[in-house]
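U., I forgot to send this yesterday:
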Amino acid sequence: MTYAEWMRDWIQAPHALPEAFAIALWGDDPAAFSYVISQSEGVGYMWMTAVAREHRSKGLGLAAKVHALRAAAKLGLREV
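Result:
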């Protein structure tokens, strides 16, 4: 997947909530991310949470997921 395809499908898609895309860094490197998308009015879906293999078991996935869920709540989603 190219960067342009990723932007189109993940960030610019009609269901996208870029504000609810959380990236956890380990130093300067992305180590984990989590993403909530819009499913319907006030309802979201936890699309994905992923952690780079070398950074698993450090709590980064949980931190990214919590951050994405809090961002979704600030956007007005009442259910995920």
